[in-house]
Fold this sequence. Notes:
Number of helices: 11
Amino acid sequence: MQAYRQAVRGPRGGMLLIDGDHLVGEAEAAGLAIRHLAVSAARLETTSDPAAAIARRLERAGTEVMAVSASVMEALSPVRTPSGMVALADRPASELRQVLSARPALIVVAVDVQDPGNVGALVRASEAAGASGLVASGQSADPFGWKALRGSMGSAFRLPLATNPDPSGLLDDLHGQGIRTAAMLPTGGVSLYDAPLEGPLAIVLGSEGGGLPSALAAGADVAITIPMRAPVESLNVTVAGALILFEAARRRRTRAS
């Protein structure tokens, strides 16, 4: 139980708390080491239930599988309506060096994005668009926290991810690797449709409320703004990130064809 509580608190390291059949199945498919699995006893009693099949496979692979009562599952699960399956798995390796070394580089840098749901959705959009990795920098939520994992729907188990406390130093590292940086701004930047998105690129996104700090935006190679019809002034950080990611991906496909 103590291990479950620690995972719920979301330590940057150690074990992941994975809730629900879909995420547990995605973690299994990605080859994560799943150490413990708790399943509602009622679900295990129905052989046609997907939970029973997952539990059998993981138990054969060496996972400790526990059948628990509804009340125990409520205590273990972090969500309001428990799915009936909760697992603890080893956290995947998440090294900045791995993210920066991937080629062709199309990296998302989330700076101070504090909503774990937004971080998870950014991870999902990044994988969908073909990005090479994502860095959660500054005060951003941990992409391996349980809420972010639910938002990523399994993408966090496949996309190279890293955390970094120093956004300014990270920009220096990116430039040192020959990766240009594009800062997303609500106004004043080059139109998304005219911006240079080819070649090794890192898309730098700011927090939900304050956006990117001005000093950080000034250190980027280019500032990009998404043209919007008035009176709309801004978009959710995940929507903005997805738009530029897919535009960059479209340009790369066109160039390759």
